[in-house]
Amino acid sequence: MRGRKKTDATRQAIIKCAGEVFSEREFHEVLTDDIAERVGMGKGTIYRYFRSKEELYLASIGDGLDGVHAAVKTVLETEAPLATTIEALVRTLIDYFWKRRDFFLLMHRLEPKLKPQQRSDWEKQRLETVAMVQKRIERAAARGGVSHVNTRLAVEALFGMIRSLCVYRADSDRPEELTRLATQIFLRGVGAATAKGGGRRTRTFQVVQGGRRRS
C-alpha cells in the first residue's frame, strides 16, 4: 500500500464519505475508523491522504461549501423582496452549518495550515457572496426600501450573526426559529425581534451615519 500512487478519485471518495459522516454527528463523536468503514478502506489509507481528522474535516467542508455557495447564488439571483431574500439566505446558511458548528472553531485554528490555493478559493467565494448581498441591499436602498448604510459591513455583521447562532445555539433551538431571529434583527433591529407578542410597541434601532440619526 505504501508504494501505491495516490489518486484524486480515492481522495474524493474519502472526502465524500467523510462529509456524510460529519453531517450525521458532532466532530468529536466521529472516529477515523467510522470514515474508513463508510468508504470501505483501511484507516491507514485515509492517513496517507490526510494527516489528521481535522484536515479531513476541513476538506469535506470545502467540498460542501461549493454546493452551498451555488445554493446561495441561486437565492441571491432570484428576484424577490429584500426581506424574502435575506430570510432565504439565512436559512440556507444555517441549514448547512447546523451540524457543522465545529467548522468555525476549527477553521480559526487550522486556517494558517491551509494550502494557499485553498485559502484563496474560500476567500474568493466569501467575497463574491458578500458583494452579491451588498448589491441586493443597495438596490433596496435606491428604491427607498431601507436606509443607506455601509453595506459591506452590514453584510459582514449578518454573516457574523449567523456564525454566532450556529456556534452558540442550544440543543432546544430550531433552524427555523434562528432564521426568523437573524432576519428580524438584521432588517428591523433587536426591538422588532423581541416585541412580537409583548403587548406594547417597541421602538426599533435606527441607522446612524456620521454621528447623525436617520429616521
- Return the CATH class: Mainly Alpha
Reported by name, the CATH topology is Tetracycline Repressor, domain 2
Helicity level: 55-70%
CATH superfamily: Tetracycline Repressor, domain 2
Whole-number total of structural domains: 1
Task: Outline the biggest β-sheet.
Answer: 2 strands, antiparallel
Poorly predicted residue ranges: 195-215
What count of helical segments does DSSP give?
Answer: 10
Walk me through the structure.
- The protein is mainly alpha-helical.
- The protein has a single domain (51-213), classed as Orthogonal Bundle (Tetracycline Repressor, domain 2).
- The chain has 10 helices and 2 strands.
- It has helices spanning 8-24, 32-39, 43-49, 53-77, 82-97, 102-110, 116-142, 151-168, 175-188, 190-195, and strands at residues 208-209, 212-213.
Furnish the topology, listing elements before pairings.
Elements: H1 8-24, H2 32-39, H3 43-49, H4 53-77, H5 82-97, H6 102-110, H7 116-142, H8 151-168, H9 175-188, H10 190-195, E1 208-209, E2 212-213
Antiparallel strand pairs: 1-2
Helix pairs in contact: 1-2, 1-4, 4-5, 4-6, 4-7, 5-8, 5-9, 7-8
Give a quick set of tags describing it.
215 residues, Tetracycline Repressor, domain 2, 2 strands, 68% helix
